[in-house]
Amino acid sequence: MCDFELVTREEWGARPPTDVQTMQDPVPYVIIHHTYQPPACSSSEDCIKAMRWMQDFHQIDRKWNDIGYNFVIGGDGKAYTGRGWSVVGAHSPSYNNQSIGISLIGDWRVELPPPKQIETARKVIDCGVQTGKIRPDYKLFGHQQVRQGTECPGQRLLDEISTWDHFSKTPPFVWVPNEIPT
User: Fold this and answer.
1) Is residue 177 part of a domain?
2) Which of 68, 73, 83, 114 could form an SS bridge with 87, CB 3.0 to 4.6 Å?
C-alpha cells in the first residue's frame, strides 16, 4: 500500500523518546519543513548521521521529548521515522497535535531537493491518507505559512509544494513567537 522505503527508528539508531503524546487520527494538516542544518545528504550513511545529529540537537539542546518531525526525507530517497504516525510532534507550535510534520534534509531556500526526495515526501503523504492517518481533505502548508519568523521550508521548496494537491495559501491561524523586550 505504501510505496516507499521506510527506515525505522531502530535502523537509524534513535534513542527512546523521553515522553510520547498521541494524537487522534486522521489529522487535518501536513506541514512541510527543511532541516537547514544538517545539510543535504545523498547516501544512507550520511542521512543516518543527519538523523542522529537532529535527535541530539532536538533532545539535548532544545530539551524536546524527541526529534521534532514525524518523518524526515533523505536525499537517498528514503523516509526516516521521526516520531511516526499518531504522535504529537514538535515542529509547528499550535499545529503539533493536529498535523504530520515532514522535513526534507537540507537547505532548500535556493535549490530544489532532488526529485527522489520530493517524490518520497509525496508518497509519505499519500500513505498517510491511504492508511487513515491523514484526512483525505487535508490542507498542506509550508512551515513559514503557519509560524511567523522562519524561512522554513525554504522559498524554492515552498514554490514546489505550492503546486501540489491540497496546498492551501491561507492557514487557519499563524503562530507568532513572543517578542523579547529590548
Assistant:
1) no
2) 83
CB atoms within 10 A of CB 41: 20
pLDDT bin (cut points 50, 70, 90) of residue 178 is: low
Percent of the chain's residues with pLDDT above 70: 97
- Strands (E) located in 5-113: 6-7, 27-34, 71-73, 79-81, 99-104
**Domains held by the chain: number:** 1
CATH of the domain at 74: 3.40.80.10
In one letter, which amino acid is 18? T
- The three three-digit cell numbers of residue 56, written as one number: 541530539
pLDDT digits (tens, 9 = 90+) for 23-62: 999 999 999 999 999 999 999 999 999 999 999 999 999 9
Q: Which amino acid is at 128?
A: G
Is residue 150 included in any domain, yes or no?
yes
| Alpha helices per DSSP H over 32-114 | 44-56
pTM: 0.95
Query: Is 172 within the bounds of a domain?
Result: no
Q: Residue 128 in 3-state DSSP?
A: helix
16 inside domain: no
